[in-house]
Design goal:
Gfo/Idh/MocA family oxidoreductase; six-stranded parallel sheet; alpha/beta; Gfo/Idh/MocA-like_OxRdtase_N; seven-stranded mixed sheet
Length: 344
């Protein structure tokens, strides 16, 4: 294993759209680590890792990848349905593991990963809830904890993607867990974080298909709303969309007894507002890569630092399990049209 005096030797599994971003950050933008291996069943993705990232070893077989004795840590950016088994295998192979969100599509699998991590307390297991590493959200969290808005009791948060007329996301929609698991699980984690991690007790959701009719056969929607109730009276409201015309718009509002905080209103790309014969406007962020580019780098840096210094994970697997638990209840409410009690 690496020590604090040596760079962390990292391998990445999964080189799709998000996997490439993580791989580029590991190869070029993350201090104190070196990307030495990549795993993908897709030949062109392995060739990309070798030619563009300078990765010395590539694997098509995940088990062979795990057995590489030179690897200290694994970054998983694979389909969500594989996360739990692959994370457990990585821990059992003696590797630190970073898992892209969500931890798993059901609570039982999340708990299996928790058990495997508990059996290896010497290893870091971290889930990529990237918004916790976004400077604006981190600043808001600090403000809440310092009591600047009194007692927080309501969070309203949304994740709204720009419309893709070709419906490219439909290729992975059947295995994503649905819009709330794929998009709103970030907002769920943010709400719990800002509210002090209360237990969720009940969820209700509704949704509609505004554009992508193919989602009906999957039991999914392209616009969804949810309300979650927490012990102690706190509430959260979530909105998810895949059909925004102007760009990617993620914003979060935290309301307290003495004020409120609003993060990301209007999806601004910069602080330039244009006024002309067409009206008053500003440019919007195109996608979540642009909006959270710094945060993606910050979270991998935090993971590497925890691995190299025997520190604690910046966020717990229990937080990831609760996010899945709540997102599952929201999705069940969408399917059944009734409020869902959140069981433990």
């Amino acid at each position: 294993m690496s020590t604090a005096s040596a760079p962390l030797r990292v391998g990445i599994a999964g080189l799709g759209r998000l996997g490439r971003r993580h791989a580029e950050n590991l190869a070029f933008h993350t201090p104190d680590c070196v990307l030495i291996a990549a795993c993908s069943p897709v030949e062109t993705e392995r060739a990309y890792a070798e030619a563009t990232l300078g990765v010395g070893k590539t694997y098509s077989d995940f088990n062979a990848f795990l057995q590489d004795p030179d690897l200290d840590a694994i970054v998983l950016v694979t389909p969500t349905s594989l996360h739990a088994d692959q994370a457990i295998a990585a821990l059992q192979a003696g590797k630190h593991v970073f898992i892209e969100k969500p931890l798993a599509l059901d609570v039982a699998d999340c708990l299996r990963v928790e058990a495997a991590a508990s059996a290896r307390p010497d290893l870091i297991a971290m889930v990529g809830f990237v918004r916790r590493f976004d400077p604006s959200h981190a600043h808001a969290f600090d403000s809440v904890r310092q009591g600047e808005i009194g007692r927080p009791f309501l969070v309203r948060s949304q994740t709204c993607d720009r419309l893709d007329p070709d419906g490219g996301f439909l290729a992975f929609a059947p295995t994503s867990g649905g819009i709330f698991m794929d998009c709103s699980v970030h907002d769920v984690d943010l709400a719990r974080w800002m509210l002090g991690n209360p237990k969720a007790t009940r969820a209700f959701a509704s949704g509609t298909i505004a554009v992508h009719e193919d989602l009906a056969a999957m039991g999914d929607v392209d616009n969804g709303l949810a309300i979650v109730e927490f012990e102690g009276g706190a509430r959260a409201v979530f909105y998810a969309s895949r059909t925004f015309a102007h760009g990617h718009e993620q914003h979060t509002e935290i309301i307290g007894t003495e004020g409120k905080l609003l993060i990301g209103q209007g999806a601004p790309r910069d602080h330039v507002v244009r006024s002309d014969e067409h009206g008053v406007r500003h440019q919007a962020t195109a996608d979540f890569f642009e909006r959270f580019s710094d945060a993606f780098r910050h979270e991998l840096t935090a993971f590497v630092n925890a691995c190299r210094t025997d520190g604690a994970s910046p966020l717990s697997l229990q937080d990831a399990t609760e996010a899945t638990r709540i997102a599952r209840a929201i999705t069940a409410s969408l399917h059944h049209g009734q409020p869902q009690e959140i069981q433990r």
